[in-house]
Amino acid sequence: MGDVRNRWTAPFGWVARVFRIPGEERRSLVQTTKAAAAAVIAWVVATSVLKLPQPFLAPYAAVFLVQATVYRSLRGWAQQVGAVSVGVLLAAGVGHIVPSVTVALGMVVFGGLLIGSWRGFGDSGVWVGVTGMLLISYGSATEPVLLADRLLETALGAAIGAVVNAVVLPPLHGERLRAATSRLASAIADVLDETAALVRGGEPPEAADAVQDRMRDVRSLVAEAEDAIGWTREGRFLNLRGRREAPEAPLENLVSLWPPLAQLIDAVSEAARSEQPFQHPGEHARGVVGDLLEALAEVARSGDPDRLDRCRELVGEIDHLLVTPTDEVSTSIGLGAMALPARRLVQRLHAD
Fold first, then answer.
1. Mean pLDDT taken over the chain
2. Are 207 and 245 in contact (CB under 8 A)?
3. What does the domain layout of the chain look like in residue ranges?
4. Residue 317 — φ and ψ, nearest 5°?
5. Measured between alpha carbons, how far is 40 from 34 in angstroms, rounded to an integer?
6. What CA–CA distance (Å, rounded) separates 258 from 252?
7. Predicted confidence (pLDDT) per residue in 260-271, tens digit
8. Between the CA atoms of 323, 329, 331 and 336, what dihedral angle is there, to the nearest 10 degrees?
9. Where in the cell is it found (predicted)?
10. pTM for this prediction
11. Which CATH number fits domain 174-351: 1.25.40, 3.10.20, 1.20.1070, 1.20.58?
C-alpha cells in the first residue's frame, strides 16, 4: 500500500518542491515554460510577421535551443543553422541531379547523417540528414524560394529560443553545486570516522573491506562533484545572472582530498589486515592517528578552517613519534605510511 500511495502522491510532492526549494524541479519547470513560450513566439513571428508558408521548423528549432546553459544555447544556434544550411544545400544538389524521389531520399539521408557526424555540428548534426529528408519528401528541394524559407525559419526559431533562454531567467546550477558539496563533505567525514575506529584497532580486520566499499561511494561522489563544477562554470559563462552564483572553490577543495584520502585508506587497510606487527603502529600512535582522523572529519562536516589547529597539533605529534626512537614505533613502517597522506589532508583543507 505504501508504494502505491507514494506513486500517487509523487506528482504532488514534485509540485510542492517547485515552490519550496530552488532545486532541479523548479529549474525544469522554468525551462519547460520558456521552451513553450519560445515556440509560440517563433510561430507567431513566422506566420503573422514574416508570412512564411508552413513554418514548422521555426517553433521546432526554438524548443531545442532552450538549453541547460546560455552557452549551449548560443553554441547550438550556430551549430543548428549550419547543419540546416548544409542539409538544404545537400537536398538542392541531389534533387537537381536525381529525378527519383525514392533514390534521392536515400542518398540525402545517408549523406546527411554521414556529414552530420562531424563533431563540429555537435548534437545538431542529425539536422543535416533530417532537413534534407524533409525537403526531398515534400518536393521542395528544387524550389529556391522554399529552400530560403526553410533556412529563414530555422535561423529565426533558433535565435528566438537562444534569446529567450539567455534573457528570461537564464539557467544556473548553483543548487547542484551546493548539493554535491554537502553530500561529498558528509561522505568524506563518515569515511574518516570509520577509518579512525579501524586504525585504533577497535574493529575486526574485516571492517577494512567495509571502509573500502565506502571509498567507492566517495569516488562516485567525487565524479558527481566534478560534473557539478563543470555545469556551474558553463552555466555562469555568458550568463546575465552568473555573478550571483556561489563559488565552486569549497567543492574543488573537497575533490582535491580524494588522492591523499585514498592513500590513507589503503595504508590503514593494509596495516589492519597484516599479521606482521612491525607494519602496524603501536597503540599510542594509533590513538594519535585516530584523533587526527576524527578531527579532520569534524572539519569536513563543518567547513570551519579554525578547527584545523587541533589537526596541525596532532600532525606535529605524529612527526615527533616518527623521529623519536621508542620501542613502539622505531620499527613501524605503518605509521609512516599513514602520516604522509594525513599531512596532505590537513594541508589541502587548510588551503580552503
1. 82
2. no
3. 2-167, 174-351
4. -65, -40
5. 10
6. 11
7. 999 998 888 877
8. -70
9. Membrane
10. 0.69
11. 1.20.58
Kindly write down the DSSP assignment for every residue of 73-137, as one continuous string: HHHHHHHHHHHHHHHHHHHHHHHHH---HHHHHHHHHHHHHHHHTSGGGGGGGHHHHHHHHHHHH
**Long-range contacts for 41-47 (Cβ within 8 Å, ≥24 apart)?**
41/160, 41/164, 42/156, 42/157, 42/160, 42/161, 45/156, 45/160, 46/153, 46/156, 46/157
* Cα–Cα nearest to 182, from 228, 213, 215: 228
Nearest-CA neighbor of 188 among 215, 225, 227? 215
The answer to whether 188 touches 254, Cβ cutoff 8 Å, is yes
For 202, phi and psi rounded to 5 degrees?
-85, 0
Q: Which candidate, 294, 304, 314, 346, places its Cα nearest to that of 190? A: 294
> Which distant-in-sequence residues (6+ apart) come within 8 Å of 72 by Cβ?
234
Cell 513553450, residue?
36
Confidence grade of residue 21 (pLDDT, cut at 50, 70, 90): low
Helix-strand-coil split of the chain, %, nearest 5:
80, 0, 20
Spatial contact of 152 and 85, defined as CB atoms under 8 Å apart: no
Do 212 and 270 meet the contact criterion of CB atoms below 8 Å apart? Answer: no
The overall longest dimension of the chain from CA atoms, in Å, is 94
Q: What is the 3-state secondary structure (H, E, C) of 233-293?
A: HHHHCCCCCHHHCCCCHHHHHHHHCHHHHHHHHHHHHHHHHCCCHHHCCCHHHHHHHHHHH
Other residues' Cβ atoms within 10 Å of the Cβ of residue 341: 20
Q: Per-residue pLDDT tens for 221-249?
A: 898 888 888 888 888 887 777 656 667 78
